[in-house]
Each structure stands twice: as C-alpha cells, then as structure tokens.
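Please, structure for the following, as tokens.
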Amino acid sequence: MHDVPDIDININNLSKIEGHANLEVNVRRGKVDAVKLKISEAKRFFTQSVRGKPALSVPQLVSRICGTCSIAHLTCCIEAVEDAMGIKPSEQTVELRHLTMDALMIRDHAMHLYIFCLPDIFGVDSVLELAKKERGLLEDALLVKKAGNELGKLVAGRSVHAPFPAVGGFTKVPSNEGAKELLHELEHAREHAIGFVDLFHDNMQEFERETHFIALKNEKYDFLGGEICSSEGYCITRGNFRNHLTSVVMPYSQSTGFEFAGKEYMVGALARMNLNKEALHPNTKRDCAGCIGLFPSHNVMMNNLAQAIEIVHCMDRAMDRLEGAEFKPEKYTVPPVKAGKGIGVIEAPRGTLYYDLETDEKGLIKYINLVIPTAQNHVNIERDIAVLVERELEQMDKDEISMEIEKLIRAYDPCMSCATHFLKVKWKGEAPARPSRKRKR
C-alpha cells in the first residue's frame, strides 16, 4: 500500500438518479480518509408544507414526494393518520392494501433490476443498447413490469399516484372480473420473473462487509404489519422506534443519515430476505430454492437478487389474493376526525419507511416527521464505499474503481441506483498504472 499515492476521487452530478448527488473520496497513504456522499437536492419542505392541512387529505399530498414509490408514502401516511384517529379499516381494505403493495414491489423492483442493472450484466451503458443486443430479454422484462402496473391500476386506480386508497378505506373497489383477468397475466409474467432470478444469481458480484440489518418481520413476508426486527436477534414494537433510531448530521449533504441502536445499518430487500426468508410464499420457496438458500448474507450486491425473488413472491401472494376473490362494494364514508398521535411503519421497495405525526381536535396536522429508507442507508453506503476503495486500490485502475463504486450504490436502491455509467469522474493526483482486468460478467 506504500506505493499508492494520495488520491481524491470526485464524481460530480451523478446522473440517472432521482435528485442530485455528488461523491467525494479522499485517499491518504493508501487508506480512505473520508467518503462524502453529498445529496445536493434542494430542500422540498414537505413536512412544513403539510402542517395545518387536513390529515385526511395529507396522504395524497405526501405521495407526491416520490414518483417511483408514491404508493409507499401514500400507504404509510394513511396508516399513521388512522393510528392517530383510532380508525380501524375493514378486512377487505387491508387485503386491498396488501395487493397495492404487491403491485408496487413488482413494478418498482422491475424498473430497478431490468432498466438500471441489466446493462451491467451485458456490458453495455444503457437499456437502449440492451434493446439492440437482447431484445427478447428486454421484452420479457417489460412484460413483468407491466404486470405490476396492471395490478396497481386494478386495485389502486393507477400504478403511480393512486387515487383509490384513502384514510379508512378505498374510494373504489376492484371488479371481480378484472381480478380474474389479471390472474392470467400474472401467471404468464411469473415464468419470466423466475428466469430473471436465475439471471441475477448467475451474474452476482461479491462485496461483503458485516453490518446491521433492519426490517419489518411478519408471518407472510408482507410489507405491512409486524414488528421492527434486527439481524442481531431482537424486535421492537413500531411505537418504540423513536427510542432506537437516531439521526446523524451530514454537514455536507441535504440528507440526514441515521443509526439504529447506535450502529450504521441497512434496510431494503436484502434486510427483508435475511430476516423473513422462511415466510416466503411456498411456491416461491419451491421454484427459487437454490437462490433463497444463499440468505442470510452480508453481500450487499445480493440486494438485487433479493429484489428479483421478491418479485416472484409478490406475484404468488397477489395470485392467492385474487384467486377466488369476492370483492364487495364498500361505500366510502369520510371518517370522523380527532386529536391524536400516530405512527405508520411499512416496507417500501428501498426499505423501512416511518411516518410519525400528530393531529389537533379539528383533524389538522400539528406535527409530522418522515424517515426515508435512502436516508437510513446513507451512513452504510459511505462505509461500504470506503471499504471497497481500500480493497481495490492495488487491483484496479481509476476507471474500474469508479465503475465498482457505481455498482455498489446501484445495488442499494432505485433512487441512488439510477447513477449508472454516464459519470464524469475527476481524479486529483495520479495513481500508478494498474494491470487492466477483464470486467466481471
């Protein structure tokens, strides 16, 4: 390591991401001195802008935080408002919310894996180039994503910014005829989804670093309900999360980081799989047994494989819920409002999402706080980047290290993972020439 000079890696304006981010890595005497993932997106003041607004309408407002997983924000906020006002949804409403979350996971994971990650496997820069080389594979990918879109449209009205879910129920209930028709589409798409599980397994990269995993744990690997559990073997009630979750100020970033019980940690599909794999749907466990057996794992790159398995699981759960479904018309009635405090905790595609709010006697928002999965992963991402750079300094040249950093960030979640290959990397200082290596496929 003595031959490695001081190096500054600056990746400015990470492209193909939701928002804006830059990365700065400083290497001194062969050791990483600092990693700064700078989220430069301007503050959007959602928590301030909804204060004083009617709590019953706030879920639709906060769903605009993210176009990718708006349904996650919508659902989590609904859960928090209901908790604050003592509203208990019907069994059918709960089933429809599970279906809505299944649809979100299928669509969102498909976008991440098939649009952003597949190009890496085939050594191309974008999905546009992939369309020329692997047109059939791309058509299969879009078919899987379409199944998630259609499920979201059937149950929630749209796959993005869904109009039907509301505090206390759904403003419209899906038709049983539509449910039966969608069953066939899900069955057909499932065959391709299993093929993608094998593809991501066969092209999986290795990057292991022991860390702490946090996720909701329940009996059916659902994304709603259950306790907040740790890979260290303990669980807490959702109302107790404030006592374990602490914010970490990132003075160089617009995003706040978080620690759980004083440690950096990871949320997302890998965390869910590590904690819930025994609860996967029986058909998923049967058809993906070889891949599921690899979990639990500390290989961050396996987050992609976990997402691929979750797509199959969500299809299996959704087909169970749709098969023989007898959805009954439920007239939506605006629920009465009152003062209270409520918490919503769900599993969004990128990981555990928290809403903490308070309403006054008129049903207006007095206080609201959001804890976003990407922010929770911030500290862990920086630690992983530091370890990756130190491991590869003597093995890779500058371009290869930058590529591996991109892949590592991409493995975490779609918001950051859109940062693929269109990066301008500025290195300060010169590194000695490294032997060129063939890129892993």
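Residues 13-19, 416-425, 429-441 have pLDDT under 50 and may be disordered. The radius of gyration is 22 Å.
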